[in-house]
Specification:
The protein is an alpha/beta fold. 42% of the residues lie in helices and 13% in strands. Bound molecules: cobalamin and iron/sulfur cluster (SF4).
Length: 492
């Protein structure tokens, strides 16, 4: 069997980093980890080929080679997934679909032959057994969650590693919290399931042996779901692994209570973590109560962010406007929070209700659903009728985005952050493309960019105040260029 694994293209969005990764000549920010995991779960004797259409074209030759196509996608790739499916059907191929998009809304894809939903570790074996007997059903799904200690090492060799800015790896699935707008718990459960430290070391070794020295994203929903295991097993193992390695800085996602645990932060930094994405959502206590984000309540979150920065973790933040409790004053309060905390990468979105969440059920009961969500939570759209009125919400949202990504505010925020940040010990090895990126940014941003004054001001400020953070300052300037492009595209 020749199995063709296809990942549809991402639109040009906040998280695609398309306008930033060009500076280092990369094609995509992250690899399709679901498909490389699937590759390892498919029978060993099958021939496998992976086409991530974010890094290369799906050609007629690929389709002619294949006996069967396996496609994975998130909601944001809905349109491009439809295009891929149409091409595969035209070529007369059987299409098998899985991953978060199809798990959430498979009924909308009539052309797909087989849906192998939820976690492939659980649903794929019965599909393969039925296929062998020529009796495969249309839908395979489960309400169970798998034991990820049995998940195999992803088949990294299916990827062209040189095309990616970062690699990803997964230590845990699921989250102990219960925020009402989030479908992580519906998709992956409440109890964080973890891999063993040995499994992670084997995965790291296999990537390292393939030559990977770049950034590595631990794509956990909440990396600190099991702190005891982290402190006693995983982080000591990562520190040990690092001893004879170059590069490979880590970043991940965690809840804000990470800031309460000084020793955990120190161990993470020692193990090579230098950044963490945190769901801040809103500085408004009532709105936090409304969405059941108790872990963010009754704390000084600006101070929490600074504590993480001082420990050596750059904080990227997720923010939401459009809660029922929000009044128009929320827009300025969000701007103030973002500026004061020095969260450079602030993903601000309108509240959306993904199917399968408690918010979705509430909106349905209240007749406030507006159809499908776009899947891109930074495009200024929503699938619910907000309390404050859609126009007020949209205008306020556009104001936030215009404000925080204007060169003056953005560069100010970078300085606020760099002032606080403890420089990481683990550095990315300087390769030729990163070396060139420095010149490219000097020309594109420093000579032709609207932000040129701010760019050189940051350059000089960093040179004299935090010279050890120069490469990070340039990287953040390049990210700012991407975020501004996205704002322009969305006409914010
Ligand atoms: C890494 C990640 C990203 C990366 C994407 C990198 C990439 N190239 O894929 C980035 C940072 C770009 C990203 C962005 C966004 N993401 Co995201 N992301 C994740 C995250 C944290 C990990 C994904 C991953 O690699 N998992 C590990 C692999 C092993 O799991 P998997 O892909 O689910 O695959 C398993 C199964 O699904 C299945 N499977 C997968 N594919 C296939 C295919 C077949 C044929 C079969 C049989 C089985 C199968 O088997 C695998 C093994 O069990 C998930 C949450 C999560 N824990 O999964 C969210 C998640 C996928 N993202 C989500 C969302 C909403 C977003 C954003 C809108 C913003 C946000 N809230 O984060 C943006 C949208 C993108 C954009 N605007 O460009 C949602 C998707 C919801 C949905 N139903 O589609 C998730 C589930 C998190 C959440 N609830 O908010 N994201
Ligand atoms: S803490 Fe994050 S992953 Fe967990 S339920 Fe809340 S939003 Fe979802």
């Amino acid at each position: 069997m020749n199995a063709l694994l296809v990942y549809p293209e991402f639109p040009d969005t906040f998280w695609s980093f398309k306008h930033a990764i060009r500076f280092i000549h990369k094609k995509a920010a992250l690899p399709p980890l679901g498909l490389v995991t699937l590759g390892a779960l498919l029978p060993e004797k099958w021939s496998k080929r992976l086409v991530d259409t974010n890094v290369k074209k799906l050609t007629a030759a690929d389709l002619a080679w294949a006996d069967c196509v396996f496609i994975s996608a998130m909601v944001v790739q809905r349109d491009s997934a439809r295009q891929v499916i149409a091409r595969c059907k035209e070529a007369g191929l059987k299409v098998v679909a899985g991953g978060p998009l199809f798990t959430s809304e498979y009924e909308k894809f009539g052309e797909v032959d087989h849906f192998v939903l939820n976690e492939a570790e659980l649903t794929l074996p019965s599909f393969l057994a039925d296929l062998e007997m020529n009796g495969a059903r249309r839908v395979y799904k489960t309400a169970e969650f798998c034991d990820i200690r049995k998940t195999p090492t992803p088949m990294w060799e299916l990827l062209d590693l040189r095309r990616y800015a970062s690699m990803s790896i997964q230590f845990s699935r699921g989250c102990p919290f219960n925020c009402d707008f989030c479908n992580v718990t519906a998709l992956l459960g409440h109890r964080p399931r973890i891999k063993t430290a040995d499994q992670i070391i084997t995965e790291l070794d296999s990537l390292y042996n393939l030559g990977w020295r770049g950034q590595l994203f631990f794509v956990d929903d909440n990396f600190i779901g099991n702190t005891r295991f982290l402190k006693t097993e995983l982080l000591p193992a990562l520190m040990d692994w690092r001893k004879d390695k170059r590069g490979v800085p880590f970043y991940t996602e965690a809840s804000v209570n990470l800031a309460d645990d000084e020793s955990l932060m120190q161990m993470m930094v020692e193990a090579g973590f230098d950044a963490v994405f945190v769901g801040i959502e809103t500085p408004d206590e009532e709105s936090l109560a409304e969405c059941n984000k108790g872990q963010n309540k009754n704390r000084d979150m600006v101070e929490d962010v600074k504590r993480m920065q001082r420990a050596g973790l750059q904080v990227q933040g997720g923010f939401i406007v459009g809660f029922d409790n929000d009044s128009p004053s929320i827009f300025q309060r969000q701007i103030d929070f973002i500026q004061n905390s020095g969260i450079v990468t602030a993903m601000v979105g309108l509240l959306q209700a993904p199917p399968g969440t408690r918010l979705y059920e509430r909106m349905k009961l209240e007749n406030r659903l507006l159809g499908d969500m776009s899947g891109d939570n930074v495009d200024g759209t929503t699938n619910i009728i907000p309390n404050m009125g859609l126009n007020t919400l949209r205008e306020g949202y556009h104001d936030i985005m215009r404000n925080i990504y204007s060169p003056q505010q953005y560069y100010q925020r970078v300085r606020t952050f760099l002032q606080e940040y403890k420089a990481p010990k683990i550095r990315l090895p300087l390769d030729f493309q990163r070396f060139l990126a420095f010149f490219r940014s000097n020309i594109r941003l420093g000579l032709f960019g609207k932000e040129r004054f701010q760019y050189w001001r940051l350059f000089l400020w960093t040179l004299f105040r935090r010279p050890e953070l120069m490469s990070l300052a340039i990287t953040l300037a390049i990210h700012g260029h991407h975020f501004r492009k996205i704002c322009e595209l969305r006409i914010f």
